[in-house]
Amino acid sequence: QVQLVESGGGLVQAGGSLRLSCAASGSTFNSYAMGWFRQAPGKEREFVAAVSWSGGSTYHADSVKGRFTISRDKTKNTVYLQMNSLKPEDTAVYYCAIDFTPYSYIASRSGAEYDYWGQGTQVTVSS
After folding, report:
1. What three-state secondary structure class fits 87?
2. Under 8 Å between Cβ of 89 and 74
3. How far is residue 49's CA from residue 62's CA, in Å, rounded to a whole number?
4. Which site from 88, 112, 115, 118 is most exposed, i.e. has the minimal number of CB atoms within 10 Å?
């Protein structure tokens, strides 16, 4: 059974850092793109970052570019989201997701392209 488990969320002051992890189990995920999305209260889910199956291509939303970095460790079946210079507007539940299209050349910014989602981890940034 496929499982994506996010961790690393928490409460942090503005300007601080957190690293989110998404551990995958139940299958081999190294052939698939993975992404991070977030949803704040009362808002729609939005794209944050994505990484191609190879790890060679990464994509970041303009709102987090230069502050957040997505990466993956294939030996650990884990995707990370390093978040620096956090702002109160980054407060949201963060979800990782996997696109079960094997060896895709791109990692989509659209949540509709992702097939399986984790349960999310809360990130709260205080001002």
Report:
1. coil
2. no
3. 10
4. 112
